[in-house]
Design goal:
heterodimer, A: about 425 residues, alpha+beta, OB fold (Dihydrolipoamide Acetyltransferase, E2P), Dihydrolipoamide Transferase, Chloramphenicol Acetyltransferase, six-stranded mixed beta sheet, 8 helices, globular, B: about 325 residues, alpha/beta, Rossmann fold, 2 domains, five-stranded mixed beta sheet, 14 strands
């Protein structure tokens, strides 16, 4: 009897998966452990391995399709066997002689097992179709909302009336997720900068939207800023990278500014541990370890991999970990475990020349550090002379339920001291 | 208004109609001298005499045929079946003759017969005495079927059935016979084909008939108290003619529907109701239609298992929460 493989639940928050790529073809033999497909979840692209050896009878959903967890994606069985129709309809007319899947060999009356075809939920006939109730669709049409852009809370991620109602009354309704029926005139020259289009929100973008909206709406953010003399850091980095290159040649480790900031942040958290904590409703959870998350920009979004136990890692360890995680992030190979459990987050837009900014807190962290570019500018030195300085502006967004202005400031003070005397982080 | 039992309400309906119309007669096994197997016809022989209240032989095909023949000549017989399960031995009379004579005579001959009796499981009387044939009977054009759930409806529907010029089959329920409710002493009827909203709600429509209405009302209480859900309960009362508009109006209000019946699920009444809802209120549905029926097996003799076989409040609550997900 052929088995239907369903879209698996690959992370605890996954409700929909995107079939990035099929590694198999219909008719191909597959063994236990073979990689059937790559599936993008809300967090990462993961490999789906085969648990049913046999021949691929049918692929129900083409690469690129988005399917709710539990929807059939392919069927595996014996070579030559008819693929089960996941809708529960008989496939081959020749099967009419045996309409019920009662084992032929037994004459003993038994309760027939439910046929697999019935057990499997009906698939979407069109993989790109959003599952929404008829009433939700009608409501969305009236409210000029795009159901495909809404996060469904019904069974299997189905968009139901309450989701449309929530979207229609959401505080962000001035800029709803879906396209609004605003009459935008087409460009006069007929050539716009990009086509008019509604781009479907993928798993990662939906996660970013949901998590950051939740953070900004529920966490009382406050903001602190400090300017750091980055000249000693630049000097140390140059010296270390030069020596590392001399020793290691082509494959030598190259330390980035961000590596120093990550290491310095871990040290500053050691000095002001109140910032290494989380709001837990009725308590504040202190964390003994520093698990440092940092933002990695991707073409279509952003992920935040986590360096575990950063408080006990050397600058070299942190740089090595960060490099490996960035590589995985860019190839979308980060596992959900590599993206969860952080206690503090560092974001850096310095490479784009942004001089200063404040990130949105990565819940359940108590704060996020926002690092700007190091720029040359006139500064007044210890002798009251105007000299050229290398300055870096660092912002801290804090969760005021956990961190107050004073300990937030102490943290920035510690960070500034470490960055301005960076040799401290070598010990 | 008097508070009387479902049994007394049925008896009052027959008594009032026997008084009102001399053509009304009551016939069946032990309806006269024994006062009825379930005492529904108690006292009628004494009041109306053996010409109006007639004991019949134990031969359903024979005495139902007698009633149908009499009805064609203007008598309005009210026939008791000790159990609707016994209708199966009189099926040719009940379905073929009663159901078709008006059509086949080109409208010249009416068949104003009422056949009544209990049609329910849940009393530990086994597979051959526990049928609920309302779906089977209602699938025949020419036949009307009602399933009263309360004393008020029992009296009103019985009187409407007796006055109707077509065969009307009244499915009673032995478990409901002792249920009490307010019943007017004045002459009233509950028209055939008019459903009743037994409880008003906003979040979910439960459509039920017969004793499933009572079960659904209990479930609605639990859903309100324990889950904060406002449930509307629509009592079909009449299976055929079926009041589609009341069902659809409720679904258009709540956008979610759960269908509860004591029938077995396969080709049950609610299979038809589900079809009607999805066909006529598709754009109003916010969830797939849910269904609770008896478990699909011959009526189980073991009492404890039979209690689980029939829809009960916990099963209705569970199914309701699924529809509300």
């Amino acid at each position: 009897m052929a088995e239907i493989i369903d879209m698996p639940k690959l992370s605890d928050t996954m409700s929909v998966g995107t079939l990035v790529k099929w590694n198999i073809k219909e008719g191909q033999k597959v063994a236990f452990g073979d990689i059937l497909a790559e599936v993008e979840t809300d967090k990462a692209t993961m490999e789906l391995s085969c648990t049913v050896p046999g021949t691929v009878l049918k692929i129900y959903a083409p690469a690129g399709s988005q399917l709710p967890v539990g929807d059939p994606i392919c069927a595996i069985g014996k070579a030559g066997e008819a693929a089960p129709d996941p809708k529960g309809k008989p496939v081959a007319p020749k099967a009419a002689a045996a309409p019920a899947p009662i084992p032929e060999s037994t004459g003993i009356p038994c309760i027939p097992a439910a046929p697999a075809a019935n057990a499997a939920p009906a698939p979407q006939s069109d993989a790109s179709r959003t599952s929404a109730s008829p009433y939700a669709r009608r409501m969305a049409e009236k409210a000029a909302l795009n159901v495909a852009a809404l996060a469904g809370t019904g069974p299997g991620g189905r968009v139901v009336a309450r989701d449309v109602a929530a979207a229609a009354t959401a505080p962000v309704s001035t800029a709803p997720a879906g396209p609004v029926n605003v009459a935008v005139a087409p460009p006069a020259d007929g050539k716009g900068i990009q086509p008019d289009a509604d781009v479907l929100v993928g798993g990662m973008r939906a996660t970013i939207a949901r998590r950051l909206l939740e953070s900004k709406n529920t966490v009382p953010h406050f903001y602190l800023e400090v300017e750091v003399d980055a000249a000693p850091l630049m000097g140390l980095r140059e010296t270390l990278n030069k020596r590392l290159a001399e020793q290691g040649g082509e494959t030598a480790l190259k330390l980035s500014v961000n590596d120093f900031i990550l290491k310095a942040s871990a040290e500053a958290l050691r000095r002001v541990p109140a910032v290494n904590a989380s709001w837990a409703g009725t308590s504040i959870r202190q964390h003994s370890a520093v698990h440092l998350s940092f933002g990695v920009a991707l073409e279509d979004g952003l992920v935040t991999p986590v360096i575990r136990d950063a408080h006990s890692k050397s600058l070299r360890d942190i740089a090595t970990d960060a490099k490996a995680l960035i590589g995985k992030a860019r190839s979308k190979k980060l596992s959900p475990a590599e993206m969860s459990g952080s206690t503090f987050t560092v974001t850096n837009l310095g490479m784009y020349g942004v001089t200063g900014f404040f990130g949105i807190i990565n819940v359940p962290n108590a704060a996020i550090l926002s690092v700007g570019a190091t720029i040359k500018k006139p500064v007044i030195d210890a002798n009251d002379r105007i000299v050229m300085g290398h300055r870096m502006v660092i912002g801290l967004s804090g969760d005021h339920r956990v961190v107050d202005g004073a300990n937030g400031a102490q943290f920035l003070q510690a960070l500034k001291q470490i960055l301005e005397e960076p040799t401290l982080i070598l010990i | 208004m008097a508070v009387i039992t479902y049994r007394e309400a049925l008896r009052a309906a027959m008594r009032e109609e026997l008084q009102r119309d001399e053509n009304v007669v009551v016939m069946g096994e032990e309806v006269a001298q024994f006062n009825g197997a379930y005492k529904v016809t108690e006292g009628l022989l004494k009041e109306f005499g053996p010409k109006r209240v007639v004991d019949t032989p134990i031969s359903e095909a024979g005495f139902i045929g007698l009633g149908i023949g009499a009805s064609m000549l203007g008598i309005r017989p009210v026939m008791e079946l000790m159990f609707w399960s016994f209708s199966y031995v009189a099926f040719d009379q009940i379905v073929n003759n009663a159901g078709n004579i008006r059509y086949m005579s080109g409208g010249l001959i009416n068949c104003p017969i009422v056949i009544r009796g209990p049609a329910n499981g849940g009393t530990n009387v086994g597979a051959t005495h526990s049928h609920t044939p309302e779906a089977i009977l209602a699938s025949h054009p020419g036949i009307k079927v009602v399933c009263p759930a309360t004393p008020y409806d029992a009296k009103g529907l019985m009187k409407a059935a007796i006055r109707d010029n077509d065969p009307v089959y009244v499915m009673e329920n032995t478990i409901l016979y002792n249920d009490k409710g307010e019943v007017p002493e004045v002459d009233y009827i509950v028209p055939l084909g008019v459903a009743d909203v037994k409880r008003v709600g906003t979040d979910l429509t439960i459509v039920a008939h017969g004793r499933a209405v009572i079960t659904s009302l209990k479930a609605a209480e639990i859903l309100e108290k324990e889950h904060g859900v406002s449930v509307e309960v629509v009592d079909l009362r009449s299976i055929r003619p079926l009041d589609e508009e009341t069902i659809l109006a409720s679904v258009r209000k709540t956008h979610r529907a759960l269908l509860v019946e004591e029938n077995k699920p396969f080709c049950g009444v609610d299979a038809q109701v589900a079809y009607i809802i999805q066909a006529k209120a598709f754009d109003d549905l916010d969830a797939p239609i849910g269904r609770v029926s008896s478990i699909d097996a011959p009526q189980i003799y073991c009492k404890r298992m039979e209690d689980q076989q029939l829809p009960h409040a916990a099963r209705v609550v569970e199914a309701a929460l699924k529809v509300l997900a």
